Amino acid sequence: MTDHARASHRLLLLAASASVAVALVLIVVKALAWSATGSVSLLASLVDSAMDSLASLVNFAAIRYSLVPPDEEHRFGHGKAEALAGLGQAVLVAGSAVFLGREAILKMLDPQPLEATGLGIGVMVFSIVLTGALVLFQRYVIRRTGSTAIEADSLHYFSDLAVNLGIIGTLLIVWLGFPEADGIVALLIAVFVLRSAWHIGWKASQLLLDREVEGDTRDRIGAIVGAHTDALGFHDLRTRLSGRTLFIQLHVDMDQTMSLLDAHALGERIRLDIRKAFPNAEVIIHQDPVPGAPRVPVDERRTPHARGRTL
């Protein structure tokens, strides 16, 4: 295992552990605040934190499993465990949104004055500070590792920041004499949480379905191939993500008069250059013999050249 891989593993486990710890702390303080105030908005935040803790535990288990090296039964590794964890998080978050919506509607039908609003506001400020620190750390880990599970976890913790800010505003409004605001804001929170669940679930499902990698990945690979003057073109480029591993497959056109040894050496140089640009990538290159006459490397998405070819 490389030093980069070991550092990534440590960061992932640390981020997953921090997420579980933060969720458990927030559950305790929000439960105390809810019992003192009776606010359904605080209850909404408490339920959300309870779901966070469960999701974070699932994340922790999934990340540990995804770090297991490839074996005879899983030749491509265990990276998709992260996408499964993200899908599980989406289901949990959606369930909590439905529960919150029900409680919000009941509160709107029977609004009640709140007690100890100062305590509730203090708890929300504490939650914002703690959650904000966790999100910043998670964003750092995502930049270093590209983890799908940590990204999903970070997304709903980031949504918690908006929720907590909304609850502070709600408690102030209720304190000013508008108890019906509690139920209204709780319902808005439920809708917001449901939207986050959809986003998490959609991304996780697309990873499980081997969706093409987004962004400029294809253009960067094309530029790398084009930098090798002996490469006459490329086509059938395919990419997919499995956890943090990027799988890249492509055909590179080479002069048909080139020796097998030279063709292999060229393919290896291209593969190593792609690995330099994408350290977490597994690259498979198929050498295609074609007549000479160098041409500009092409991508099958921009030209019909060689469509239908397979590895």
Structure description:
With 311 residues, the chain is mainly α. Helices cover 66% and strands 11% of the residues. α2 packs antiparallel against α5 (148-175) and α2 runs parallel beside α6. Residues 18-209 form the Cation efflux protein transmembrane domain.
Break the fold down into its secondary structure elements and pairings.
Blueprint: H1 3-37, H2 40-66, H3 81-109, H4 117-145, H5 148-175, H6 180-208, H7 217-226, E1 231-242, E2 245-255, H8 260-277, E3 281-290
Parallel strand pairs: 2-3
Antiparallel strand pairs: 1-2
Helix pairs in contact: 1-2, 1-4, 2-3, 2-5, 2-6, 3-5, 3-6, 4-5, 5-6, 7-8
Summarize the structure.
By secondary structure, the protein is mostly helical. It contains 8 helices and 3 strands. It has helices at 3-37, 40-66, 81-109, 117-145, 148-175, 180-208, 217-226, 260-277, and strands at 231-242, 245-255, 281-290.
- Per CATH, the architecture of the largest domain is Up-down Bundle
Number of strand segments: 3
Give me the secondary-structure category. mainly alpha
Please name the fourth-level CATH homologous superfamily of the largest domain: Cation efflux protein transmembrane domain
Write the H/E string, N to C.
Answer: HHHHHHHEEHE
Mass-distribution shape: elongated
How are the strands of the largest sheet arranged?
Answer: 1-2-3
The portion of residues assigned to helices is 55-70%
Low-confidence stretches: 300-311
- CATH top level of the largest domain is Mainly Alpha
Number of helices: 8
